[in-house]
Write a structure and sequence with these properties.
It is built from 10 helices and 7 strands. It is of the alpha+beta class and 519 residues long.
């Protein structure tokens, strides 16, 4: 069977090559002949027209001299005659080189003979040659008329014979192409029938086998195989594909498991990389933040030690307060870091219970006014409900952090505005400042961990405060949003449900949430 297939393919290819070569040869030959005839026609007509123009030029010059209508020197006569005579000679040579048949060649020789006689008479009449006898003008005119008549006959004969030859070549080319087409069509029909018969016995099983292999390639292993019992090459291929199907099933199973493991590993590596970058940035910022309170503690302690005999009780109280504030700031940084770590491990939780939300917010505002005397925090909380379910420590942390941020990022404007209101089943709390603000690009990343806006350059902070605030708000089933304009301040708005559904126990009660306000 393999030898039959090979011989059939080889015969088809060989016949196709021979037919193509024959068609190319015949077509090229016909086209070349048509081009040759067309070129000869063009050249013959071109030189005949040049011959005619030269004839007219010399005739005009002769008539001008004989009629004495204008003065012309002998040098001018000679120059014009030489130019026309040279063109005459070139045209005669061209007509001789491109003559198509003996009949045209014979007519050209007659034309050339008449031209030479007429030229001799023209030279004598123009005075370019000397002779004892002067041509008779009537005989010169007769030769001129005969030459003109012969030239017309030459042109007419050349065009007619060229047209006949061209039509004959085109007809011969058409007949050759038609014969080639009939032969090619006949052979194509024969080979089509042969291919159809071959497909019934050989191609159809192979096509089915290819279709089965394509289904396997797409992962469809639910296929059946026929003709596995054949003893020829097709049977061997079917059995091989069946074995391949079994291997594909095993491989797909392994590949799916490997794909899942790869995706999990990529996700874990991506999170690990992101976490490492964030932690590295946090360590850098936290190190800087720890230096400032430590420097304050160290400077205050040294000053108290050096001037312990001279310090008054007020000075000692001020130094002690500075140390206390620095310690509170460090404890806040430490507590913030621990809370973030607990949140990552899922150990940060809240215990919702009934609280007075208005009193909580008022207390936070008063605390901020006591700590920071450079700013004034005002509040409007009359629309808040009497009953609210939430975690008091977490809500204190949220408000303290937002107020602290409002103070930090408003160095030149001392007004901080807090408002609270209720809408249906939710309460809303907003903290508004009139400070540095931020651009639109920073707003989209504002609550990301360790993120700090461009306007925070030179202002202490680690970038985890707002991230922790959002976490605590979401643990109350609420939302936090921010609106800001560069140079015009920022407004943070919290939405909290009045009665939350979650009430979970805390693995470790965050007693020191108050320290995180320094984030």
């Amino acid at each position: 069977m393999r030898s039959k297939i090979f011989m059939s393919i080889f015969a088809a290819l060989l016949l196709g090559v021979l037919l193509c070569g024959y068609m190319y040869f015949v077509t090229e030959k016909g086209i070349h002949k048509v081009e040759e005839i067309t070129n000869k026609t063009f050249q013959t007509v071109k030189y005949a027209e040049a011959f005619h123009n030269s004839f007219k030029s010399i005739d005009t010059l002769t008539n001008r001299v004989l009629s004495m209508t204008s003065f012309i020197t002998k040098e001018e006569i000679k120059d014009q005659f030489d130019i026309s005579h040279k063109a005459f000679a070139n045209a005669s040579k061209g007509m001789s080189d491109y003559s198509l048949s003996p009949l045209i060649q014979q007519k050209f020789e007659q034309l050339n003979h008449q031209k030479e006689a007429w030229l001799r008479d023209s030279k004598l009449l123009l005075g370019l040659e000397k002779s004892e006898t002067i041509p008779i003008l009537e005989i010169y005119k007769q030769r001129q008329e005969n030459l003109h008549h012969t030239l017309d006959e030459f042109l007419s004969l050349a065009k007619k014979e060229t047209s006949d030859q061209l039509l004959l070549s085109e007809k011969e080319l058409d007949n050759t192409l038609l014969t080639t087409f009939v032969i090619t069509l006949t052979v194509s029909i024969v080979f089509t029938l042969f291919a159809f018969l071959l497909a019934r016995g050989l191609s159809k099983p192979l096509v089915n086998l290819v279709h089965t292999a394509e289904q396997l390639a797409t992962g469809n292993t639910d296929v059946t195989f026929t003709q596995k019992d054949r003893t020829d090459e097709i049977g061997a291929v079917v059995r091989a594909v069946a074995g391949f199907r079994d291997g594909v099933i095993d491989r797909l199973s392994l590949q799916e498991n490997f794909k899942l493991q790869t995706e999990e590993l990529k996700e874990a590596l991506s999170k690990e990389k992101e976490l490492n970058e964030l932690q590295s940035e946090f360590v850098s910022m936290a190190s800087h933040e720890f230096r400032t309170p430590l420097a304050i503690i160290d400077a205050s302690a040294r000053r108290m030690e050096r001037r312990k005999e001279k310090l008054s009780s007020d000075d000692i109280s001020k130094r002690t307060q500075k140390i206390h504030n620095a310690v509170s700031r460090m404890l806040g940084l430490i507590e913030s870091t621990l809370m973030v770590a607990r949140a990552d491990k899922g150990k940060l939780s809240i215990t919702p219970k009934e609280i007075n939300l208005t009193e909580l917010i008022e207390q936070c505002c008063e605390n901020q006014n006591e700590i920071i005397t450079s700013h004034i925090v005002t509040h409007e909380l009359e629309e808040l409900p009497d009953l609210f379910i939430g975690d008091q420590a977490a809500l204190t942390q949220i408000m303290t952090n937002l107020l602290s941020n409002a103070v930090k990022y408003s160095p030149d404007n001392f007004m901080i505005e807090v408002q609270g209101w209720m809408r249906e089943t939710d309460v809303y709390i907003s903290v508004k400042d009139h400070g540095l603000g931020m651009d639109e690009e920073d707003l989209s990343n504002l609550f990301g961990r360790f993120f700090r806006a461009k306007t925070s350059t030179g202002i202490p902070g680690t970038g985890i405060g707002l991230n922790l605030v959002r976490t605590l708000v979401e643990m109350h089933e609420g939302e936090i949003s921010a609106q800001s304009s560069l140079g015009k301040g920022s407004t943070f708005t919290i939405r909290l449900p009045i009665k939350g559904e979650n009430s979970t126990n805390i693995d470790q009660e965050p007693q020191s949430l108050k320290y995180a306000s320094q984030m």
